[in-house]
Amino acid sequence: MKIPKQVTVGKATYVIQEPDRVASCHGKIHYDRRVIKIGKGNTYGTYTDDERSNTFWHELTHAILHDMDSGLAYDEEFVSDFADRLHHAIKTAKFE
Q1: Are 63 and 9 in contact (CB under 8 A)?
Q2: pLDDT tier at 1 (50, 70, 90 boundaries)?
Q3: What H or E segment, with its residue span, contains residue 85?
Q4: What does 34-64 look like in DSSP terms, one character per residue?
Q5: Which positions ≥6 away from 28 have C-beta within 8 Å?
Q6: Which residues pair with residue 29 across a beta bridge?
């Protein structure tokens, strides 16, 4: 999946950055700066396209739940489980 350069959730437009690394994780969202970072890899190697795509959906899930004022935005287990399922559904979608 191609990672977008920006995405709008509610009234907030997030710029997507793709640094070589994101400290101690695959990705990060900064609500106040409206930035989502999707790392390209870590000290052990480069993330696969699939890992980066999953990270994008994970961070986008945070953004959506934050926009909804849901406490689930800070529940990493819920966000990971939901994003994994969203990533799989989009990856396996048939359009023809």
Answers
A1: yes
A2: confident
A3: helix 76-91
A4: TEEEE-SEETTEEPPHHHHHHHHHHHHHHHH
A5: 22, 36, 37, 59
A6: 36
